[in-house]
Specification:
18 strands; five-stranded mixed β-sheet; mainly beta
């Protein structure tokens, strides 16, 4: 069962991950399916496995249910994460990442990425890092903060976020590499 990870941020909504499916099929609220391109649909086909289902109760609007289709070859990571912006929810369904404004989910996903294998928080500046095998993107207050270009050949993993920056390990043709990124911009500062 997936969990809701707040990373210490204060979301402006309550979440129930994987709620029990109603016996009569009626959720009693809006059900919004998110397609891999960020658009919404009344129902989504999840041919690669069960969708990630989340019941969301925003502080200022009505209850709704999200269905995020399984990502298939995009990865295995599944979960729901709070973002530094109290109105944003990050859903990752088998590596497909969606960032949704909980007050207006019908507008679609604000940001979509595939192949996400790690989600890490960064305290200063407050960010959620969506890490892929060769690059990453950061979600901050207001949505996408930055995206890196390709950083390495494979196996990019964040090891630490702190005063030294975002410390990552990865693989290059010459072997293992440790990189440091600027948390403000995602720019590569150097290597260790």
């Amino acid at each position: 069962m997936e969990a809701f990870e707040t990373f210490g941020f204060e979301p402006g909504y309550d979440v129930e991950v994987d709620p029990e499916f109603p016996g009569d099929g009626d959720w009693g609220c809006d059900v919004i399916g998110f397609l891999p391109d960020g658009r919404t649909a009344s129902d989504v086909e999840s041919r690669w496995g069960p969708p990630l289902v989340v019941r969301v109760q925003p502080a200022s609007s009505g209850l709704w249910v999200a269905k995020f289709p399984a990502g298939g070859a995009s990865g295995r990571l599944r979960g729901v994460f709070a973002a530094p912006d109290p109105g944003l929810l990050v859903g990752v369904s088998d590596g497909l990442a969606y960032v949704v404004d909980v007050e207006s989910p019908g507008a679609g996903a604000v940001l979509v990425s595939h192949g996400v294998h790690q989600v890490v928080d960064c305290p200063d500046p407050p960010l959620i890092l969506l890490v892929r095998w060769t690059d990453m993107l950061a979600v901050g207050v207001g949505g996408e903060a930055w995206r890196t270009p390709r950083l390495c050949l494979d196996s990019l993993t964040v090891r630490e976020t702190g005063p030294r920056g975002i410390v990552c390990t990865c693989e290059e043709t010459a072997g293992p590499l440790t990189l440091v990124l600027d948390p403000e911009t995602g720019v590569r500062l150097g290597q260790i």
